[in-house]
Amino acid sequence: MKEQDLYLGIVAVNYTTGDISTPNTILEKKIGVEENYIFRRTGIQNRFYLSAEQSFLNLALSSVNKLLAETEIKPEDISVIICASTTFDKNSPSLACEILNQIDPAANNLDCFALDINAACSGYVYGLDVVKNQLLSTYTEAKKNYALLVTNEAFSHFLGNSPTSDIIFGDASSATLIELSAHVQKNWKATIHNSQIGSVRDRKNSIVLFNEYGCNKMLMNGLSVYENAVKTMTYSVNKLLSVNNLSVSDITMFIPHQANSKIIEAISRSLGVAKEHFYCNIKEFGNTGASSIPICLTEIFYSEHKQVPYTKGMLTSFGAGFAYGSMLIEFI
Amino acid sequence: MKEQDLYLGIVAVNYTTGDISTPNTILEKKIGVEENYIFRRTGIQNRFYLSAEQSFLNLALSSVNKLLAETEIKPEDISVIICASTTFDKNSPSLACEILNQIDPAANNLDCFALDINAACSGYVYGLDVVKNQLLSTYTEAKKNYALLVTNEAFSHFLGNSPTSDIIFGDASSATLIELSAHVQKNWKATIHNSQIGSVRDRKNSIVLFNEYGCNKMLMNGLSVYENAVKTMTYSVNKLLSVNNLSVSDITMFIPHQANSKIIEAISRSLGVAKEHFYCNIKEFGNTGASSIPICLTEIFYSEHKQVPYTKGMLTSFGAGFAYGSMLIEFI
Fold first, then answer.
1. With an 8 Å Cβ cutoff, are B117 and A116 in contact?
2. What is the set of domains in chain B, with CATH numbers?
């Protein structure tokens, strides 16, 4: 293991939303609040829900299959598959194994590390860290060193019992291909650097997703989430900057978990960073849990946003538990 | 990161079972089979179920609190907490965060990597690998480098709808303290070496745990599990031996996941190893999923078994998905 000589890169990333576009007006009527109430409180205008035909597995496979088509990677080149979700639809088998059963029916790959993880809305940052360390531990020059990081969130299966969360969450999956290599590759979108990851105390059981008498439910204490999210992401970003001898002005784009536009604005104030440096697309998707950061990355890497001369970026997330994490990346 | 100069050790391990001892006679009467039917087919005589007063969280905390009392480790010394389960009782918050909220109410530790993982019955071996790589990635001489690996299984919440699985599974948690250090420590029970981990195709959806209309259910295709388990664990053990230039005779004790005594006997035949070299305590506990290997380790490290002059040991596991893994350890 020689981490100092190796580079970790994001080769490709994409996302898939639920099929049913659901603008605020539908929800405002349903929960009985005035027009524009949701946008004023959350910055959200729309979110997508799974249709009755879209299964949890198929949502994930949509992103995975697009990724395999784009990159032309074979399933047997994947050393690690990590699936992050807050909304797993069953206890067993794992989504990671289910995906491999689908994409490698000929069983060409028997040695893929296949694991489901749950760090709620911090699943992508936690997942990147697990991917990084697993790839490092099995690296050899003789083989391809690819990992697949999937996020898959079907929050709509947990909504309907609490207006506080009903207005915020949406459904989406994502798939990211990550490569460990002795050289930075031309086709990479970004390199992944170090992280600052942890967990802080939730004294109020602020975000709970559970099943009660056959009904999935979600309960959220919005104020407690807001206060802890702002404080903790500010702490995490500052700590990671400090470890890297960087200041906030060295980061051209912060890519925060899209929890609520009020939280994103408060972090930008708390860090003293103009909000233009905080990527925000929550208006269109709502909060898609572990999928929110990779949706942002897809937009940044594949759209006109890429024209902006980005250099360093920082992912930062916070979610139920509370589990949080930040990660430094460098745009290519 | 200098893995070659660092050693990973198991400092302590313990387990807790469900409160209700449930011998075969009770189940044989319930499902209407003759006396001794269960023991003949599975090698199991007893298993433990959670009582109505024992919650999922409390089952895990019993083991964690015993571990903290035994080792006198403070919560702030723990860099990583990984919780492995097949039978998580809710989607959010993670068990890892719930445990930290309980054992560190004063919030002395804000930087603990806290993650739930699901690799079914291979959760302990997958978890050890994640722990190893996470500890390596954050190692510094200046701090304590401890990880807590918790397994927590409440299979009884998923039983009652299929005699095939009803007769096999039991409830138990475990807690393992793992340390990364520049020196092998006197108080360690074993050192942890390399692993061979992967996943093979399950074409028959052989082990499924899900919730249907408010009822947790478990379905299992026993024959498919048996055939794949024997083939895959044999493959994994042979591959890990080969990577280490070892032969089966170098391993004084194989510690397999306790799935079914027939599977354990078949692997011992398939590897050409006398069954005395396969640790087996399934008679007493049934199949406790991710908790079965750490229960074996507790018995080996803390009981008269320790008197046997063990040197090298090998953990090997197989479970739903199918996810499998083997790991080489050295007894101290």
1. yes
2. 3-181 (3.40.47.10), 192-331 (3.40.47.10)
